[in-house]
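Deliverable D5.2: sample structural annotation.
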Amino acid sequence: MKPLKHFFYDEFLRPSQQEIEEFVESIWGPIILMYLYKLNLILQTLSYRRDLKVLFCYPSGLRIFDLWQTYLGARDQNLNLDYDFLKISRCLSAKILYLKDPLLCQKFFEKLYHNRAHYIYYALLNKEVEKTCSSVGELFREQEILEILQREALAFENYFRKLVGDKKTIVLVDEGWSGTIQLPLEIVFPEYEFYSFYFGCLKPFEFEGRTAKNLRGLIFEAKEGLFIPEKPETAFIFNLPFLKNFFSTGEKALIISKTKEYLQNLSNSLTKLVQLINSYQGAINLLKSKIINPKLKDLKLLKGCFPDPKKGEIEKVFLLPPMDRFLEDSSYKRIEEAGWIFGQILLEYIDKPFEREALIDFYLKKNSLLEKTLYFTEYLIDKKSQEAFSSYIFKEELKYDFSKKVAIILRTKDRPLLLRRALKGITSQLLQNFELVIVNDGGRIDLVLMALLESFIDPSKVKIVNHLKSKGAEGASNAGIRATKSKYLHIHDDDDFLYPEFLEKTVTFLEKNSRYKGVVTYVFQITEEILGTETKELKKEIYKPDFITIDLSRLCSTNYILPIAFLFEREVYDKIGGFDESLPALGDWDFYLRFQLEADIGVLPEVLADHYVRTTVPSCSCYGSATTIGRILHYQDLSYLKNKYLRLAMQNPKFLTLALLFNFGYFHSDIKRSITNLI
């Protein structure tokens, strides 16, 4: 067999028809089906709007429209929707800024093309630079360029206004990614309201302090342009050329043809549709593994077309032949330049598995939100203070204390006023056989240590988990629990308060009632305000006083359990896999639902804790409460939970009821919420 580089542009990397059929059936078909299902729900919801115009953007929008029509035909559906096709590109959208301000137009081109004049010259004139072009500023002083910008900007303005007519709300349908087409439209046409529903969204393109509004990725959203391990869909960021190639060109004609056949085989049966949608999560996980750790056969399916360097392409090339292009070329340089990092790693190190695995690990950490939790760090406080507080610091080499019955996981960040109050409740517990794990989630460690010193708590009871960067509420809970092995667990936010009898009565309840693995008490909800270094109570009432039992059906519709009121056994926590760290707002609700699938939760009808909320906070927003600052996150996470429970239902039938009760109802309401501003 010849070396791989000799086959690079040959039939060796061309997939067979059977490989394409298997790829579409098991991976690509379910992914495209999920995308079209979501897109269709949105367009169906919008179809009644009279002031709405849906524009499928060239060239990817043509492919999307064709697939959507195939989907509708297979399901015997037809939408009465005002739509058209918008002929636009990133370069053309940049040109129209000339109507607003010539200097603004120049600056946009500079950022879009990384201040490289020869690329801008090619983009504007569609030909190679015929003379030395030293700067973008010089280029934009040329009469030929200015005439082109003015002529094409005016032409587009007339074209666009005629296309949308009297409609004022514009929905753009495209592959994605960062809003570089939409942003100039918003600047030049401020009288229109633009919304985009993309296949995927990356970190929004920023220009002059603003980004495009109302962007939504229906399959994935990587707002920071990074891979999120808990969301396998974001693995697409490592292989965007495949998507661009699929939606925009004829290079993948056979894959497209087979994808349409897959959609045509749909029936009008809702049951079959749900079954196919349920196969999505397995498909996206499989695709993620092929993108991140591909085999040679995966290159055939996931590679893209190879750009012609003579055309002045500035996008990253997809894959490069594994051979030196110039004297100082190297594998590392080719990997850095490739559009698919992990595909290039395979080509470069196909016979060196250990080097390949090391590079995969390196680039995963470099381009993702993966980060190890730090349990110990140097503090920006004087040496004497470090020595005084050293006994509080939890180091990884310390042994677990199995003698403690209860572990209190206290989550805090830069709220010493509230933390001191919480510590008073903890130190006053009648049951003293507990350990306290304080998770400093990205805040100042010296504030935590000073609060501990003022509380006079026994240092032998305390461990500190210190995060240099915030992991969020659920990440803090998991990190704290990992630092202990106690039988019973309790999650405590720094702005809540425990009555002295809480641990004693809840532990006694669970030990006397073996059928329960968790117990909830009644709680006073107190509305307060911060006044300097003091708090003022405004209102006090029992939180949701009408429950006497915890049942799954009611819990599916509303969360009426507060973390401060809940004590539970570690056994169930370990069994269900802990808290979902990808949920910034609904992690506790998600945990309780999964908990109740495994075990019953009892109710102790006594008020044994206080839960504080603040409707107004000082300029430092760290004193806000989840109730007042989490509404937007709440609505966003409902959509995530829908997908999550469908995935769990695929893996384990016991989640089917939960998925049906919770997810499908919220799926439709979430779609409607995403377009609330259109109504």
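Annotation notes: The chain has three domains: 11-82+167-300, 383-629, 631-679. Confidence is low (pLDDT under 50) at residues 1-12, 305-316, 370-401, 626-632.
The annotation will be released with the project's public dataset once the embargo ends.
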